[in-house]
Every structure is written in C-alpha cells, then in structure tokens.
Specification:
elongated, mainly alpha, about 140 residues, about 65% helix, 7 helices, single chain
Length: about 140
C-alpha cells in the first residue's frame, strides 16, 4: 500500500487538490500535470492519472496473490492458531483490495474487477464492471 504511484504525489493531486483540501502551491508553470488536476483539465495522458491506475491495480494484484496463496499456507500448517492466522491474513488482503477498488471506482468510474491472478492477455480482455457490480464486490470483500 506504500506504492508511490498510489499514495504519493498523484494521490494528493487527485483527492486533495481537486477537493480544495490542499493547495498546489508554487508557480503555475511548476509541475504542469498537477496544475491540470488543480484546474480540472487533466486527461488520460496526464502521467499522474497513469500513476494512479497502475498504483491501485498494483495493490489489487498483490492482494489477489495473497488471497489465493493463503489457502495453500492453511493446508500446509498443522497448528490451528497458525491456520486461523493464515485466514486472517487472507481477510486483511480482501480489505486492502476493497480499499484499492473503492479508490479506483472513485477515480475512473467503471473499471474491470480482477479477483484472480491473470496473465497480461487475460487482463487486457477484462470487461469493465458496472458501478453496481463494483460496489457489490467491494462490500463482499469487506464482509468476508
């Protein structure tokens, strides 16, 4: 979750500067991509937009890996407390994934739901989920 792409400069621009919780500062010519957020003129070519997309989907990818690996740990563990902890880790990864999807849908609207480990080819053909599907997916992860 400490990804620079997801939680640093781009995050401040997208969530704080656009809401007037933060001020871009400096001169208008300093950091044109951030100025685009400040003036609501950003487009898909803004590098900060790409940072947010890759950063939050990187969190989704890491979460998916953890979610799908925990049952393997569970099966190999002998101590019931260790098994319980493995499933707790899986649940925590689902909370992190829900957080990433919450931000993705706030930023981009309809995005694909990726809930497994995918090849780049499969990922490229993933369809956009509806807003209702996204929020249902987020809620399910949080309830799990």
């Amino acid at each position: 979750m400490r990804s620079f792409d997801a939680h640093a400069f781009a995050y401040v621009g997208a969530f704080e500067i656009t809401s007037d919780n933060a001020y871009k500062g400096s001169t208008p010519g300093d950091n044109p991509p951030m100025l685009e957020f400040d003036t609501f003129t950003h487009t898909a070519t803004n590098p900060l937009v790409n940072s947010l997309w890759t950063g939050f989907f990187g969190i989704v990818s890491a979460s998916n890996f953890a979610i799908h690996q925990m049952p393997l740990f569970y099966a190999a563990l002998l101590n019931p407390l260790d098994r319980r902890y493995a499933m707790q880790c899986q649940a925590e990864a689902k909370v992190i994934r829900a957080y990433a999807y919450f931000n993705l849908t706030r930023l981009f609207g309809r995005v694909p739901i990726i809930d497994t480990i995918m090849t780049p080819t499969h990922l490229a053909s993933a369809r956009q989920a509806t807003t209702q599907e996204l929020y249902a997916f987020i809620e399910k992860d949080l309830l799990d």
